[in-house]
Specification:
CATH class: Alpha Beta
Order of helices and strands: EHEHEHHEHEHH
Mean pLDDT: 95
Radius of gyration: 17 Å
Strand order of the largest sheet: 3-2-1-4-5
CATH superfamily: HUPs
Low-confidence stretches: none
Number of strands: 5
Oligomer: single chain
């Protein structure tokens, strides 16, 4: 398939979902810019390291890498990812409740930054690794949320020609792992743990969902873990 010559922006947190989304963007466009947001999360240092490692892998020029400080999200708090008084919970299985790892309205802030930068550098597409079906049930990962967001972007930008794309939103973690293998994405450079900056814990929601995805795909996760449980 011929790549698009339109510049795209990929939001790259450093996690597996954003890695695969960035791989899709790089597979679809000849020119891709990478955006990373530091918002005071527990694993900010490790996620930033993963971002640059992934950007290096895809040979993203430094003028096409943007790191923005949005630590006001830590000031707002309300999430175990940003508030040290809220403990990151161990994975307890599927639940219909929104977990306290949800950062209030985070993806709206992140996408807004991406849209602003896209207007400046004339990018037409924004790629974000939101996952709905196999995620922790975050409201800003729903397909209906992105449909509404794109309407807002069309109304609120100069040319109204910027669109947010969510290529993995309906994939299970197993399917995301298999997509990574298909695209030869550097899974060993990604970081998913909510708690640690050194070795992934293996028991937070994010580690558990990632490990389960690898286990269901029948592929070993290349990351080291403090504990590596088997998840059904």
């Amino acid at each position: 398939m011929k790549k698009s010559s339109d510049l795209a922006v990929a939001l790259v947190s450093g996690g597996m979902d954003s890695l695969v989304t960035a791989a899709v963007a790089c597979d679809s466009h000849t020119h891709v810019a990478f955006l990373h947001l530091n918002y005071g999360q527990n694993t900010e240092r490790k996620e930033l390291e993963a971002f640059h490692n992934i950007a290096d892998f895809y040979h993203i020029p430094h003028n096409f890498r943007k790191v923005i400080d949005v630590t006001f999200l830590k000031q707002i708090g309300g999430s175990s990812l940003t508030d040290t008084t809220i403990k990151v919970k161990d994975f307890k299985g599927e639940s219909s409740e929104i977990p306290d790892s949800y950062v209030p309205f985070r993806n709206t802030h992140l996408c807004a930054m991406a849209v602003s930068w896209s207007e400046v550098i004339s990018a037409k597409k924004i790629y974000i690794g939101a996952v709905y079906e196999d995620s922790s049930g975050y409201p800003d990962c729903r397909p209906s949320y992105y449909a509404a967001l794109n309407k807002l972007i069309k109304e609120g930008t100069k040319k109204g020609d910027i669109e947010v794309l969510t290529p993995v939103i309906n994939l299970k973690k197993k399917e995301i792992v298999l997509k990574a293998i298909e695209l030869k994405a550097p899974l060993h450079l990604s970081w998913s743990c909510y708690s640690n900056n050194d070795m992934a814990c293996g028991i937070c929601d994010s580690c558990a969902l990632r490990l389960r995805g690898f286990q269901q795909a029948g592929i070993p996760d290349p990351l080291p873990y403090k504990v590596r449980p088997s998840y059904p």
